[in-house]
Amino acid sequence: xxxxxxxxxxxxxxxxxxxAEVKVVPNEILLDAxxxxxxxxxxxxxxxxxxxxxxxxxxxxxSVRLSRHPDISVGDIVLxxxxxxxxxxxRVFSIDGDKVTLMGDGNLKGTELCxxxxxCGTVDGIIRPGGKEKVPGDGALWRKLLPFRRYLVAFYRxxxxxxxxxxxxxx
Amino acid sequence: xxxxxxxxxxxxxxxxLVNFNKMIALNSSxxxxxxxxxxxxxxxxxxxxxxxxxxxxxxxVAEVDSRKLAESWIEAxxxxx
Lengths: 171, 81
Known about the structure:
The complex is a heterodimer.
Chain A: H1 11-18, H2 27-39, E1 43-47, E2 63-67, E3 77-81, E4 87-96, E5 99-103, E6 112-115, E7 119-127, E8 133-134, H3 140-144, H4 149-167
Antiparallel strand pairs in A: 1-2, 2-7, 3-4, 3-7, 4-5, 5-6, 7-8
Chain B: E1 2-4, E2 7-13, E3 17-26, H1 28-36, H2 44-54, H3 59-75
Antiparallel strand pairs in B: 1-2, 2-3
Helix pairs in contact in B: 2-3
């Protein structure tokens, strides 16, 4: 509240403006809306959460630009609506007919299964804090490094990421 | 302006791109003001007049509230100067 004023009628407006930092919306509500926009043919930008796509998409820091593609390929990073009503943003690991296997780049073992029709959209760009956008690669090299992933991800999470956060740089 | 859950939000959006990082949550009075200025050029004084017409509020408070609200909308990227 500014000094010397009491906002009598619109205290909520003040609160909204002063607390206008990051609004956390429950995933399902937000991503249902995102999914609808993507199926309407629009692009969407959303902030990401979590560590399952490290090192390529850093949850809480990076955002992604998504759109619906006519086809999906192995190596695409996609937003998918899973059977348990959850959404994931993971990389396509394999496609077998209608069945898609997804795996987070930061995950060591777990995969998710869905149908092609469950894929809501594909990541066209990864947007770093500061606004710079880069087109995602296909993760082919990262996939080859799967036997070493445990150590690479641990190194990234425990050393590289805290350093880049501290120095306020993006790599 | 969209309803998301049980709140009103404005998402910075153009015809083809919807950017949820440019999002601002509104209470009902701010939502009323937003709806009232759709499609027109307005300034903080216009918002102030809307407030004074609709609500029983002290003019000095309306003045400051409307300026701050307009600034927050500009900062959120949902309106431009």
